[in-house]
Amino acid sequence: MATTFLSLSSPTLLQPTSPFKGTTTALKPTIRPYPYQKTQFWGTQKRPIVAMTSQSSPAVGVGSLSSVRLRLDNLGPQPGSRKKGKRKGRGESAGQGGVMPLYRRIPKLRGIAGGMRAGLPKFVPVNLKDIAEAGFQEGDEVSLESLKEKGLINPSGRERRLPLKILGDGELTVKLNVKARAFSAAAKEKLEAAGCSLTHLPGRKKWVKPSVAKNLARAEEYFAKKRAAAADQASA
């Protein structure tokens, strides 16, 4: 096997002979037309830093740069990938923002269900027909206590503190002494026609401040004087 030696005086490098019979053009690297990326490693952890060529790098800021390093401050979505949401035509939502809405502050139902005291009873009602059937004799007293003794009413719970009210359903022919807090117009007319004596029991006075009570007394005295003066002028 013939070999060639390297000559110190020759500038060319002689290679040993090879049995390869093909062409060496197929062994040359192919240059691709599309841009490529260069990967560089820095430090001991060897984190890749991607640098794009001028052909594939997008324009950043004013003008195009030859090489742009990708960082957190220049990242962004692709053009056309983010679109504004479509409006449905319902307008902007509105509300009072933290304040109880008016429609929730107004009670919807009357009475206890609506949070009001309009549905609570204020009296223990008794009709004239019930008094007539109870068997009262002429001259007897009809009051809340006598009606309880007769078993005509049996208030319980909150109703035990309620006063008596006479209603006008029915007829009464016996003369009685009726004591109650209130009388309906029909009941008052029928009792007076039957010759009964009516006694309006005073209600529980509402507590007021001493200063308010003093002003109320002054107002009552003032209007009493005016009524007396008007009566004297009418009589004169």
Automatic annotation (TrEMBL):
<dbReference type="GO" id="GO:0006412">
    <property type="term" value="P:translation"/>
</dbReference>
<feature type="region of interest" description="Disordered">
    <location>
        <begin position="1"/>
        <end position="28"/>
    </location>
</feature>
<dbReference type="InterPro" id="IPR005749">
    <property type="entry name" value="Ribosomal_uL15_bac-type"/>
</dbReference>
<dbReference type="InterPro" id="IPR021131">
    <property type="entry name" value="Ribosomal_uL15/eL18"/>
</dbReference>
<dbReference type="InterPro" id="IPR030878">
    <property type="entry name" value="Ribosomal_uL15"/>
</dbReference>
<feature type="region of interest" description="Disordered">
    <location>
        <begin position="71"/>
        <end position="99"/>
    </location>
</feature>
<keyword id="KW-0687">Ribonucleoprotein</keyword>
<dbReference type="Pfam" id="PF00828">
    <property type="entry name" value="Ribosomal_L27A"/>
</dbReference>
<dbReference type="GO" id="GO:0022625">
    <property type="term" value="C:cytosolic large ribosomal subunit"/>
</dbReference>
<dbReference type="GO" id="GO:0003735">
    <property type="term" value="F:structural constituent of ribosome"/>
</dbReference>
<dbReference type="InterPro" id="IPR001196">
    <property type="entry name" value="Ribosomal_uL15_CS"/>
</dbReference>
<protein>
    <recommendedName>
        <fullName>Large ribosomal subunit protein uL15/eL18 domain-containing protein</fullName>
    </recommendedName>
</protein>
<feature type="compositionally biased region" description="Low complexity">
    <location>
        <begin position="1"/>
        <end position="20"/>
    </location>
</feature>
<comment type="similarity">
    <text>Belongs to the universal ribosomal protein uL15 family.</text>
</comment>
<feature type="domain" description="Large ribosomal subunit protein uL15/eL18">
    <location>
        <begin position="125"/>
        <end position="198"/>
    </location>
</feature>
<keyword id="KW-0689">Ribosomal protein</keyword>
<dbReference type="InterPro" id="IPR036227">
    <property type="entry name" value="Ribosomal_uL15/eL18_sf"/>
</dbReference>
